[in-house]
Write a structure and sequence with these properties.
Elements lengths: L4 E8 L2 H12 L2 E4 L4 E5 L6 E6 L9 E5 L3 H10 L3 E8 L6 E6 L5 E6 L2
Parallel strand pairs: 1-4, 5-8
Antiparallel strand pairs: 1-5, 2-3, 3-4, 6-7, 7-8
């Protein structure tokens, strides 16, 4: 698996208003996953993502996810390079794979995604 960006996650105070805005602005397609999350696709080949329902949208709260072979190995490598393990590998559910996060040496949060 390559190390391409596979998912971008943003916060929204109103998922329906967000869906309406980005659908009209960019033509993105949305799919609701429960009450608090909406996935979007930018195109067949473009990177997609999701909007998570939140009370506040803070600058810098966007997270992008890098597709990796294994989350624990990637987290250990990041740690050996001066980064930090923030969220250990967790199941997304519904057969959608796993996620975790690392902190780079500068304080940025980077999401990791893996099928296994």
């Amino acid at each position: 698996m390559g190390k391409e960006i596979g998912h971008i996650e943003l916060i929204s105070k109103d998922l329906m208003a967000t869906k309406k805005f980005y659908s009209k602005l960019f033509g993105w397609k949305f799919e609701m996953l429960g009450d608090g999350y909406s996935m979007f696709k930018t195109s067949q080949k473009g990177v997609g993502g999701g909007f998570m329902l939140g009370k506040k949208v803070k600058p810098g709260s966007t997270t992008f996810y890098v597709n990796v072979d294994t989350i624990p190995a990637t987290q250990q490598k990041a740690k050996s390079l001066g980064g930090r393990i923030l969220k250990k590998r967790k199941s997304i559910g519904g057969g959608m794979g796993y996620w975790g996060t690392i902190g780079d040496p500068h304080g940025n949060v980077i999401g990791l995604w893996s099928k296994k």
